[in-house]
Design a protein that fits this description.
The protein is mainly alpha-helical and 157 residues long. It has helices spanning 3-24, 28-46, 55-73, 97-107, 111-121, 126-133, 137-155. The longest helix has 22 residues, at 3-24.
Length: 157
């Protein structure tokens, strides 16, 4: 286990992890927790990476499985109040309103759809998406078209 090589790999691909965290978690704290869990799972699995796939494909598979497993494990505690919370004004946390709308729409997709569109947004080929998700390459195209239509309807484009 070569720690400097691992850290370099994580540094190069951390954008993938952050996007998945934002897609699967709502609060900053939850995203940070998920990011740490992804890093931990990647470190645990690093010695078993054999290079049969690209490193980014391997990272995506581990990170996505971690996000989905962690998401299914946690049952959110819902508290009902009589009043709506005050919304913060000003900053959008470094994102534009359009990005916020897109991520809000993406969060409404089911887990499988989120996984496919996240990979697509990373400019992965249909073949790479098929390898990671385990579905047929032709079906990736069908699913992506359906997901895009669904997002357009959500955003009313």
């Amino acid at each position: 286990m070569d720690q400097p090589a691992f850290l370099d790999t994580i540094q190069q691909h951390q954008g993938i992890l952050h996007k998945l965290c934002r897609l699967y978690r709502d609060t900053r704290e939850d995203r940070e927790d998920l990011f740490q869990e992804m890093i931990y799972q990647l470190w645990k699995s690093y010695s078993s990476f054999q290079g049969h796939a690209r490193i980014s494909t391997w990272i995506y598979r581990i990170a996505l499985n971690t996000a989905l497993a962690d998401f299914r494990r946690k049952k959110p505690h819902i508290t009902y109040t009589d009043q709506l919370p005050e919304l913060p004004t000003g900053s959008h946390g470094g994102t534009s309103p359009q990005q916020d709308q897109l991520f809000a729409a993406l969060k409404r997709l089911n887990d499988a759809e989120k996984a496919i569109i996240a990979l697509y947004l990373e400019d992965m080929s249909y073949q790479e998406i098929a390898e990671i998700t385990g579905i047929d390459e032709n079906y990736v195209g069908v699913k992506l078209n359906r997901i895009k239509s669904k997002i357009k309807n959500m955003l009313k484009l």
